[in-house]
Structures are given as C-alpha cells and as structure tokens.
Amino acid sequence: MAKEKRKRSRFVASDWLQAQILELAGVQVSRELKNVPKPELPTNNEDENDDSLETSEDSASLGKEAKRLKHLADKTDGPIKFLLYLRSCLRYLEYSGSINLDQRIDTLGSTAALLEYAARKSHGFAKQALDTQNEKKMSEYGHLAYLGYKLAAVTRMNRFYLKSEKLRRFWDAVTAFDTKKQKAERLKRGNIDINAASSSQFYISPQETQTDARNREYIVKEAQDSIMAMASWRHSEEILTSIRKEFPSTMHSRIEPLLSFELMSSQYDLTTLAKNVRKSLLQIY
Description:
Blueprint: H1 2-8, H2 15-24, H3 32-35, H4 49-53, H5 57-74, H6 79-96, H7 101-131, H8 135-189, H9 206-222, H10 224-246, H11 248-255, H12 270-284
C-alpha cells in the first residue's frame, strides 16, 4: 500500500528555489536549468520508515550484485571495465528505491561519483579515438562516456530534489535573516538605536550571524549536485554531437538503442529508468 502511495506521489522542487540556490552559489542560471528532467519522487510527509518495510531479499541481492560488479570492474581493463562500472551503478540505482531517505541520498551520491569517474575515463579514450579517427575505439568508449555522463546528471538531479525540502527550510531561514537585517539597516539610517533590550525584533545577535553563515554555506555545498548535473549533461550532449557527426555507424549501433526510451522524460521513476537502461545495454552487447 505504501509503495503504491509513493508511486502516485509527485514531488517537484520549485524552479525559484533552485534558481535562488544557484545564484547564491555564484552560478548564472541559464536555460539548461530548465532542460534537466524533474523526477518522480516521494514526498517527505510519508513515514520514512515505510521504506525499510519493503527491504526484501530481492533488494539485498541488488546491493550485493552492485558490489560484485564494481569489484569485478576494479580488476578488469579496457572498455569492459567501464561497462561493468555502469552496470554496477544501474544496480545501485535500482537498489536505492528500496531503502530509506537518508540511505537513498548517500547511495545516489556515491553512485553519481562512480558514474562520473567511469564517464570521465571513457571520455578520455573517446577523445583519443576522435583525434585519430579510430571508429572502433570510439564505438567502444563513446557510448559509455555518453551514457555515464547522462546517468550521472539524472542521478545528481534526483539527489538534489530529494534534499530540496530541507534546502527550502534553510533558504527560508536565510530569507528571514535578510529581511530582518534590511529592516534594521533602515532604522539605523533613521538614527534609531538598535539593541537587544529596546528593539529585540530588529537586533541581530552574533549567534544569528553565525547561524546565517552556516546556513548559506550548507546551501552552496548542497547546490553542487545541481551544478555538477548540468556539467555532466553538457558533456553527454557534446559526445552525442561528435559521434553523430563523425561516426554515424556507431551512432546507429551503440547510441540509438539508448535513445529508444524516455531518458529525458519530465517525470520518471529512477528504478524503472535503471531497468530500462540495463535492457538497452543488452541490445548492444
């Protein structure tokens, strides 16, 4: 019952919150922000412990399989190494759907980092192949880099939206502090003395200033998921453009199967997405 309730729920962080966070981080908000898909996620008003009730042997086996594939990749060389890393990450994404919120956020963070590593390494080999017009190597590494970056972007954005309710509370605190500070400054310009005794509603204590600094630091730190997601998204599109232009046969055999499902759908379930990608990889290999 709880599982079906989560499937029906929609949790989408508001655009203004993300834009404000990025501005605070010193990042200019562009149209790319609107192009990143918004996932279907559970709301935070559900009992987080409900997730643990659905942890089963199937869920445990997904986690074990993800670890096994990663350890196997660590011992392997060549393009198969990065394919195994991607397969491990897909299992971790499936596994993340059956654990509680805090565990899910941690798992998505480590999974995104592994995806970025595999994509970055594959991208390096793909660039070499492009420079030397080596279609075989481009076929081997190009689609792995494309898929790795694309999945990393999607994973980072999922993680960002999972944290967005908490970020909203921090942002509300920052906004309240700024409003209070502006009122205090206007009173000071009118030669009105602001102190803790006579005007406590406008007085800003050192403790409040320190708390505000910590709040801003937290927001900027957590906004990195969104910033890194956009960078990975750009990389994936650049790779796709290069492959489409230079190696159309690779585009047909390796990339098109990955485009056959709604990776850029505006709403999706991350677990289902991972399963779809895994099935598409089976078409290629």
